[in-house]
Amino acid sequence: MNEEMSRRTLLKGGGAAIAGLSALQVAGPAHAFPGGPDDEVMPWLDQPPEPPFPDTRFLKWEDLDSYLTPPEKFFIVSHYNNPALDPAAWRLDIGGLVARPQSLSLADLMARPRHEVTFTLECSGDHGYPFVIGAIGNARWAGTPLAPLLERAGIAREGAEVVFWGADSGPVTIRDNSGVVRSHPGEPPSPLPTDIDLSITERFARSMSLEDALNDHNLLCYEMNGVALPREHGFPLRLIAPGWYGVANVKWLTRIEVIDQRYAGRFMARDYVTIRERTRDGQTEWTFNTVKHDRLKSAPAKVTRRHGRYRVMGAAWGAPIAEVEVQIDDGPWMTATLDDRHHRSGRSSRHKGFAWRFWTLPWGRPAAGEHTIRSRAFDVHGNVQPAPDDAYLASRVTFWENNGQIARRVRIP
């Protein structure tokens, strides 16, 4: 037992015991976006087209007016159905390679220690297509930490990966897999390797390494901005993994399973995979990487006018933000002012960086006509948000994980 406890401690990177962890509180009250009621918003000229996907909702940047995004305005991306689960009958099962499988009710989870984290959730496809430029929202999530429940279940020595299963499911056709020898159980297998389209009903699932799953910040979340988790956001329970793209934050969570190998479901191995082309030693290579952690990013939100003077406002996220610069047309980069109302120096630094930071830049009285506004963020480690023609970004042939600098166009009358 002592050996297993030491292994768990090593995986978590040491630190305080679970019982002594402080609440993951990041932000203060939901103050309004910088500005005032007298500000006139100048509409962007480059409005996105309507998304072709059903059951989606995106942020309209000009409407951004609060630090916390109300649940009814929070972006929605649905892959399968939107299940309606009975909280009285619902259970969360924790099983697989564990010594003590668990079956927990919502009341069981709510009776455990309650922690909070303010986390800006972004879809990894945000800014990947012209119609997806607002797949982002910021909320204060509340629930109970995941790590103590995994510890209590007693992870077996061979446990290496943790799979999070949602209740949502849908039809999937798997093509271009020469290992498939039959379409349905009970059918005779093909005598030769062949390409058979396999049509199945697949449940939504994502996984992370055991080390990642034991991160102290991960929450089994049942509350959003002080109210019960809404159905469209995963009621009665979802995973909140601060610092990970939205797809990893599994909604309608019903089962957590510890396994001894990598999980390779649709949303790990076939979809949400960034494919890049690169050249090594004069030869072309293709790389395939599962979407995981957030990337440093910023975006202009809106341009406002008051008494004839203009101001540019925006947000930055994806890492602990140190600075934001703004470029207008082809002019010099100018340092914006970061809003520190939600970034208090008294907080532990390890709890910062999960939520966006607002920024503003006075623009004075610009010349009439069309202008282009671009921003770039810097994190506390000196990393900078890449230019849109950055070679690493340009090597992508998929639309995931586009954190290049974002330019918006506005007309000054």
Gist of the model:
The chain has helices at residues 2-12, 106-110, 146-153, 210-213, 266-270, 391-394; strands at 40-42, 56-57, 76-77, 92-96, 102-104, 115-122, 136-145, 161-174, 198-209, 219-224, 227-228, 238-240, 253-259, 273-280, 283-290, 297-306, 309-317, 321-328, 334-335, 337-338, 357-364, 369-379, 406-412. The protein is mainly β and 413 residues long. The strands form six sheets. Strands 1-16-17-21-20 form a five-stranded antiparallel beta sheet, with no helix packed on it. A five-stranded mixed beta sheet has the order 5-4-13-8-9.
Total number of helices: 6
- What's the Cα radius of gyration? 23 Å
Spatial shape: globular
Q: Strand order within the widest sheet?
A: 1-16-17-21-20
H/E order of the elements? HEEEEEHEEHEEHEEEEHEEEEEEEEEHE
Question: What structural class do the secondary elements suggest?
Answer: mainly beta
How far apart lie the N and C ends? 72 Å
Number of strands: 23
- Uncertain segments are 1-30, 345-351
Q: Return the average pLDDT rounded to an integer.
A: 89
Query: Main beta sheet, described?
Result: 5 strands, antiparallel
Task: Work out the helicity level.
Answer: under 10%
Strand residue content = 35-45%
Structure, described:
The protein has 413 residues and is mostly beta strands. It contains six helices and 23 strands. The chain has helices spanning 2-12, 106-110, 146-153, 210-213, 266-270, 391-394, and strands spanning 40-42, 56-57, 76-77, 92-96, 102-104, 115-122, 136-145, 161-174, 198-209, 219-224, 227-228, 238-240, 253-259, 273-280, 283-290, 297-306, 309-317, 321-328, 334-335, 337-338, 357-364, 369-379, 406-412. The strands form six sheets. The protein has a five-stranded antiparallel sheet with strand order 1-16-17-21-20, with no helix packed on it. The chain has a five-stranded mixed sheet with strand order 5-4-13-8-9. A hairpin with a 5-residue loop joins strand 18 and strand 19 (334-335). The chain is globular and about 75 Å long. It starts with a helix and ends with a strand.
